[in-house]
Amino acid sequence: MSTGALLLTMAACGLVTFLIRFSFIAGGQRLPASPAFSLFLRYVPPAILGALIAPEIFPGGPVLADIPGNPRWWATLVALAVAVATRSVLATIAAGMLALWGAQAWLA
Q1: Distance CA 35, CA 41 (A)
Q2: What span, in angstroms and rounded, lies between the C-alpha atoms of 108 and 92?
Q3: pLDDT tens digits for range 6-43
Q4: Which is nearest to 41 in space by CA: 24, 54, 20, 66?
Q5: Rounded to a whole number, what is the largest CA-CA distance in the chain?
Q6: Helices 71-86 and 89-107 sit at what angle, rounded to 10 degrees?
Q7: Rounded CA gap, 105 and 107, in Å?
Q8: What is the 3-state secondary structure (H, E, C) of 24-84?
Q9: Whole-angstrom Cα distance, residue 104 to residue 108?
Q10: What is the pTM of this model?
């Protein structure tokens, strides 16, 4: 494949991706959202965040091995406590990162 054909293919893929995403943004305001659908959408960001974080906490699957030596477990417990106490996403992320760095330094 020549360089020109490759660049044209990449530009076409980018344009198609943009048009698909833009259609939801532009057309979504014209469609009325039911209260049930709006309630459903409130759970999407926490579900995505959980899906991104879970593989880091459970690297070998659901087996809970080597908990005392795993700094991610300690950071998870601290972040969970901060999340329950403050209900602030920013405070939870900051506390979790600080706890992870501290646990990595302590357990290293």
Answers
A1: 10
A2: 24
A3: 999 999 999 999 999 898 888 777 777 788 888 888 89
A4: 24
A5: 58
A6: 150
A7: 6
A8: HHHHHCCCCCCHHHHHHHCCHHHHHHHHHHHHHHCCCCCCCCCCCCCHHHHHHHHHHHHHH
A9: 6
A10: 0.60
